[in-house]
Amino acid sequence: STHGVYAERTHCVRVSVREYAASTHGVYAERTHCVRVSVREYAASTHGVYAESTHGATALVAARRFMRALRGRSAAFVGVSFSSALSTVVLRPVHAVIVQNAPPAWVPAGDPGDPASYFEQLRAGRSEMQRCLDNWVALTHADRDTDFDGDAVRRIIGTVGTGSPLLRIDKVFDRLRNAFFQDPTYESMDVERFVELAESVSQGLRDTDYLAYSAIFADPSGNMGVPGKSSKDFLEKTRLELVSTLKRYNAVLKMIGI
User: Fold this and answer.
1) 111-140 b/e with 16+ CB inside 10 Å = b?
2) What is the largest CA-CA distance in the chain?
3) Stretch 231-248: mean pLDDT
4) Own/partner pairs, 65-68, CB within 8 angstroms, 24+ separation
5) What residues pair up with 14 in beta bridges, in sequence order?
6) DSSP conformation letters of the chain
7) pTM of the predicted protein model
8) Phi, psi for 210 (deg, rounded to 5)
9) Are 113 and 186 in contact (CB under 8 A)?
């Protein structure tokens, strides 16, 4: 669940490749007619590089050098665009915003073996999903015709960055399941039903992440205006999946009694 590769080939002239490494790093590469490569890299939640080139290898090397230069500067988030003409690579900053260091990941509030130690994180996860839906247009720019912010959703559901209470929530569900078997307070709980609902929530978050990611890249991949495949379409699918996931999440919390 932490690594994935997606490849698409059409008429042997177009290849799109997407790679994810864990939840804090990602690489996206797209090659069209072997003359254009776009690469996006994220290092944790505090650094980002976007490189685009018609001779992609040169720009990718520059991007990697730039990332190495950034290491150790955890307070800076920088976006850079590279454009290439023949063998020339031009570095063009697009934004540089100083932010606070990435927030720490959530940890149990007490004894890891006590289910109540996770209740604060679980409540916060519900609040974050509801906040995302309540502020959908402002967060994702859904009122635009293009340039949607799918990463805003991904940050909230814990697939970009480290501060979301939903980061590795599947591991929290696993710990809760084990704790329920040992805590007599929960001996009457239908643990199998809990596991079923929890797994559906985890899958829903993965699906939401995939759809939000697709909302970023569908239009640049040539699907702008294509019914059902445009970035705007994927963004709406993202919203609907998050609504469904939140309902199942609430059902999990109701079983626990929070």
Assistant:
1) eeebbbbbbebbeebbebbeebeeebeebb
2) 70
3) 98
4) 66/91, 67/41, 67/43
5) 10, 32
6) --EEEEEEEETTTEEEEEEEETTTEEEEEEEETTTEEEEEEEETTTEEEEEEESSHHHHHHHHHHHHHHHTT-TTEEEEEEEEEETTEEEEEEEEEEE-PPPPPPP--SS-TTSGGGGHHHHHHHHHHHHHHHHTHHHHH-TTSSS---HHHHHHHHTSSSS--TTTTHHHHHHHHHHHHHH-GGGTTS-HHHHHHHHHHHHHHHHHHHHHHHHHHHTIIIIITT-TTTSHHHHHHHHHHHHHHHHHHHHHHHHHHT-
7) 0.62
8) -60, -45
9) no
Contact 121, 165 (CB under 8 A): yes
- State pLDDT tens for residues 22-62: 333 344 443 333 333 344 443 333 333 333 333 445 455 55
162 and 45 Cβ atoms separated by less than 8 Å: yes
State how far the alpha carbon of 57 is from the alpha carbons of 26, 54, 64, in Å: 18, 9, 11
Cα–Cα distance for residue pair 38/29, rounded to 1 Å = 5
Burial class, 236, CB count within 10 angstroms (exposed 0-12 / middle 13-18 / buried 19+): middle
Q: What does the radius of gyration of the chain's CA atoms come to, in whole angstroms?
A: 20
Contact 207, 201 (CB under 8 A): no
Split at pLDDT 50, 70, 90, the class of 186 is confident
pLDDT band at 15 (very low <50, low <70, confident <90, very high): very low
